[in-house]
């Protein structure tokens, strides 16, 4: 529908605004305007989606609504930054917690549950009862798993236990969904099936890292080695979400079977894995010329990933233009 097209354009304008303000001025007037605009537009999207799908009782709609709910909840983080700064608390734990709150409900809630919703829609869920249980587990565990983002404040063993339980709940949830998913993967061609299995493995790895991070000593080590935090976020954003949508868009455009497309997706994943490896080994204890070299390589792989992403986007744009109106 046209309203979603206009909304998509407006959201991208706000994203570009943030891109060209945050790196140069930080949290200031320009960046606040664009980030607030983005949040308000996302609220409009949430209202549109709710109204347009009202009455649909399917499991994919439930996941979609949960994803949108977490998107709205995540905005509490950015909105809380202003009073935190005004009250002179920018250097307190509350500033970092507000940012982590936003990130957590974005990548663990909005992004992850959106993907699960698309998967549930694509595979035509058969075991509805198990998916309903998985839905309940994901919703509850997403709330509880924010505890993982607070462990660096040393909040006490109760929060550690909550973090462990929330990660175990997610393991249980993906186990409940896995039968339908793997049955569906057998119907795909070899390349698509392989890529989706890789992404599934990345998702399991993500939950494993969250479980490991529930150990207080590990949580503190990660907090003081920021490249590990970046690597974890990259695992979600660049290792799971981005290639998943690459594959879905290619399917929609009918170009997923092209050899050139397969090669560029594999190249993207290889560069991503190299980037993750480099980010991880910076915490080992290298120093001097070695750490400088690793840092340069991280920058190179980042630019390479950006270039590959732009290339893939251009391929999709060209393919979309050839589609009949």
Based on the model shown, name its key terms.
325 residues; mainly alpha
The helix content is over 70%
Let me know the largest β-sheet. none
Backbone CA Rg: 20 Å
Can you tell me the overall shape? globular
Low-confidence stretches: none
Number of helices: 13
Helices and strands, in order, run as HHHHHHHHHHHHH
Mean pLDDT: 89
Strand content is under 5%
Number of domains: 3
Distance between the termini: 14 Å
The total beta strand count reads 0
Judged by helices, strands and strand pairing, the structural class is mainly alpha
Description:
Helix 5 (76-86) packs antiparallel against helix 6 (93-123), helix 8 runs antiparallel to helix 9 and helix 12 (259-281) runs antiparallel to helix 13 (288-321). It contains 13 helices and no strands. The chain has helices at residues 2-19, 22-25, 29-53, 59-74, 76-86, 93-123, 128-144, 157-185, 190-212, 216-223, 226-253, 259-281, 288-321. The chain has 325 residues and is mostly helical. It has three domains: 1-54; 57-186, no CATH class; 225-325.
Concise account of the structure shown:
By secondary structure, this protein is mainly alpha-helical.
């Amino acid at each position: 529908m046209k309203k979603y097209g206009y909304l998509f354009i407006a959201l991208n304008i706000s994203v570009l605004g943030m891109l060209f303000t945050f790196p140069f001025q930080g949290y200031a007037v320009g960046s606040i305007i664009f980030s607030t605009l983005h949040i308000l537009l996302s609220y409009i999207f949430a209202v549109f989606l709710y109204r347009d799908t009202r009455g649909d009782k399917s499991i994919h709609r439930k996941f979609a609504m949960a994803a949108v709910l977490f998107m709205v909840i995540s905005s509490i983080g950015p909105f809380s930054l202003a009073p935190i700064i005004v009250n002179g608390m920018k250097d307190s734990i509350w500033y970092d917690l507000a940012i982590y709150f936003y990130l957590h409900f974005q990548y663990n809630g909005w992004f992850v549950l959106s993907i699960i919703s698309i998967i549930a829609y694509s595979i035509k869920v058969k075991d509805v009862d198990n998916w309903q249980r998985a839905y309940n587990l994901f919703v509850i565990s997403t709330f509880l798993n924010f505890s993982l983002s607070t462990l660096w404040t040393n909040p006490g063993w109760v929060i550690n236990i909550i973090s462990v339980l929330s990660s175990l709940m997610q393991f249980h949830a993906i186990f409940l969904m896995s039968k339908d998913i793997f049955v569906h993967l057998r119907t795909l061609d070899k390349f698509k099936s392989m890529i989706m299995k890789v992404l599934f493995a990345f998702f399991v790895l993500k939950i494993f890292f969250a479980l490991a991070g529930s150990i207080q000593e590990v949580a503190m080590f990660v907090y003081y080695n920021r490249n590990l935090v970046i690597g974890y976020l990259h695992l979600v954003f660049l290792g799971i979400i981005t290639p998943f949508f690459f594959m879905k868009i290619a399917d929609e455009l009918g170009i997923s079977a092209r050899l050139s497309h397969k090669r560029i997706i594999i190249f993207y994943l290889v560069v991503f894995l190299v980037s993750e490896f480099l980010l991880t080994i910076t915490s080992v204890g290298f120093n001097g010329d070695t750490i400088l070299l690793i840092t340069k390589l991280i920058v190179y792989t980042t630019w390479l990933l950006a270039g590959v992403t732009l290339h893939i986007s251009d391929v999709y744009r060209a393919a979309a233009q050839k589609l009949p109106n």
